[in-house]
TrEMBL record:
This is ABC transporter substrate-binding protein. Residues 22-357 form the Leucine-binding protein domain. CDD domains: PBP1_ABC_RPA1789-like. The keyword Signal applies. Keywords: Amino-acid transport, Signal, Transport. Belongs to the leucine-binding protein family. GO terms for biological process: amino acid transport. PANTHER family: BLR7848 PROTEIN, LEUCINE-SPECIFIC-BINDING PROTEIN. InterPro entries: BCAA_transport, Leu-bd, Leu_Ile_Val-bd, Peripla_BP_I. Residues 1-21 form the signal peptide.
């Protein structure tokens, strides 16, 4: 009866596959809502990989069951679903947290329950300071700032403007950029923000345009905001380089921004330029295989966000295999020992002091040209 009652809650649960599985993995993602362009490919990737695992006999002879809830990037919903995953679904590990806000709302629950949690969100605060049961796969916002400023320094840029979203990721990345910008001999001479529901950022961008000495602009943010910023940027006639975060690393951004996206620079994973990587690049086999599998399975272009789920799933399955057990504590210990794992984000080596395991070389600097991603030669 209890399982029947849970089935009645399927309006909020996206999928549970297959019913008779033995190792239960949970996920709560922004499948719908303003962050759906991140969460939807994450969900589709996890479903694709679970199907593949089970078709190949499962893990240590046991099948995988995936339980997915759609939190719409709402921290309150995410916390509710995290509680359900722990108390009712009794999962042994969780992959999820599309957004920083949703992730941070769930972290205390997984820490208290002692169940490993691999976040798919960007903020460095998720894993710094290190939390015993929390890991993550995307490059951090701090790393994005560092990669952008490293490129700017090479271009001789010394004075910039910033326009940041006020959501969890935008706020965090803005602060991270302010913390490290001085290390690169760069000064922020204009600092503007916009809200998640704002539909016109021309006043803030006009202020930036009218600030003397601006040589480039950085936009920390994700969702629809950066696309609006990009369109407004062109409309007000700003003619200096515009740098976006890895939070826009999806074809959806280019579609929303239209022609205005051309010329935008950003740090991103190699996945977006899989076909443009040299043949001797050690990451090329991984990103091309995932890109082909995902696009064949969904008929949709690959995005780095689905790649975050790809990496999380493979690291989790590897940890379960090495542990020889689905015990949460054993899985956690093996996740922390992940070493030399080549994923879509880059080469991952974790430790008790590092629950991300990526360094700055995992980022590639890209520029959008003719509506597509291109590698910037470094």
């Amino acid at each position: 009866m209890k399982k029947l009652a849970l089935a009645a809650l399927a309006a909020t649960a996206v999928l549970a596959t297959p019913a008779a599985a033995e190792i239960k993995i949970g996920s709560t993602l922004a499948v719908t809502g303003p962050a759906s362009f991140l969460g939807d490919p994450e969900k589709k990737t996890l479903e694709m990989l679970v199907k593949e695992t089970n078709a190949n006999g499962g893990v240590n002879g046991e099948k995988i069951e995936l339980v997915v809830y759609d939190d719409g990037a709402d921290p309150n919903k995410a916390r509710t679903f995290a509680t359900r995953l722990l108390e009712e679904d009794e999962v042994v590990a969780v992959i999820g947290g599309t957004s920083t806000g949703a992730t941070m709302a769930m972290v205390p629950l997984f820490e208290q329950a002692e169940v490993p949690f691999i976040s798919l969100a960007g903020a460095v605060a998720i894993i710094d300071p290190v939390k015993e049961w929390v890991f993550k796969t995307p490059h951090t916002d701090r790393m994005a700032c560092q990669k952008i400023f490293e490129h700017m320094k090479g271009e001789g840029i010394t004075k910039i403007g910033m326009i940041s979203g006020t959501g969890g990721f935008g706020q965090s990345m803005r602060q991270q950029c302010l913390d490290v910008v001085g290390d690169y001999g760069i000064e922020v001479v204009a600092d503007e923000t916009y809200g998640p529901k704002d539909s016109d950022m021309t006043p803030q961008l006009t202020n930036i345009k009218n600030t003397d000495g601006i040589q480039a602009v950085v936009n920390p943010g994700f969702g629809q905001g950066p696309a609006i910023v990009t369109r407004n940027y062109r409309q007000v006639g700003l003619d200096v380089p515009l740098y976006q975060s890895h939070g826009v690393a999806s074809k959806s951004f280019i579609e929303l921004a239209g022609d205005a996206a051309n010329g935008v620079r950003l740090p991103a994973a190699a996945l977006l330029v899989a076909d443009k990587l040299p043949d001797d690049d050690p990451q090329k086999p991984v990103v091309t295989a995932y890109k082909t599998a995902y696009e064949d399975a969904t008929g949709e272009p690959v995005s780095t966000f689905g790649g975050h789920a790809y990496d999380a799933y493979h690291m989790l399955i590897d940890a379960i295999e090495r542990a020889g057990s689905a015990d949460p504590a054993a899985i956690r210990d093996e996740l922390e020992k992940t070493s030399g794992f080549m994923g879509t984000a880059g080469l991952v080596t974790m430790s008790p002091e590092d629950h991300l395991g990526l360094d700055l070389t995992a980022f590639r600097m890209l520029e959008i040209k003719d509506g597509d991603w291109t590698l910037i030669e470094e």
